[in-house]
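Supplementary notes (optional reading)

For those who missed the lab, this is the record we used. Protein: MacB-like periplasmic core domain-containing protein. Length: 249 residues.
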Amino acid sequence: NQTIEYPTDIIIEVEGVYLANISKIEVLPEVENILPISHSVEQYFFNYDYYLMDFSKVKIMFPEFVKLSKLNDIQEEYTYIHKTMAEELDLNNNDFFPTKFGKNQTNIIVNQPIFVTKYFPLIKTIEERPFVVSNYRAEYENLTMITKIMINLNNSFDEEQSLEKIINILKTNFQVQEKNVSLDYNIPLNMCKYFFFVISLFICSLSFIQLISQLSPIFRKMNLRGLKKRHIYALLLKQFSSYIITAFI
């Protein structure tokens, strides 16, 4: 409600859904408009092309647009407008459109509100911070994950059934993504670590067995020869030192 002029019918919080999967919901006849939001609350995605325009000049020449949109607080010099409306206002007019952008550009920092007449309401910046507008049919749609979906439903459909249909699609997406194997670049390094750990453990075990086998004759000699304590300590120290050096290596 803080970001759009009229309340959204449905706000769904999601986890693990890629931007590309939104197209499955968008084509539903029950869905009138859909606005996916990424992990950042400042990033919004639209399936439209937008054009920067000088709204102050449009207001003079086409006052009917101003009456339709009911825009009072818009910054008129830099406003983004939908492609279809831009074509209606003569897209090639450089006075109206000093800059253009479309499908070839994926992320555009926007500091002003966006005017999306007929297609989506005016979207205001959150706490006067800039946000990003992207065409989500771009090359990053399979890499970007979203956390929230704002949906306006078609009034001719039952809201509860529409919601159930949307959630079923999202559940399917979850199942598909659970089967996907994500590449962990640390796997080779971890495998090497485990390999050397096992080898080291094996060597230490052999060294310990060797130590025990070497201590047995020493104790037998001590019993037979009646060695003095200092000789016993010297022999034990020698064997333990040999074991520690082998284990360290």
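If you only remember one thing from this example: Confidence is low (pLDDT under 50) at residues 1-7, 69-78, 97-139, 175-186.
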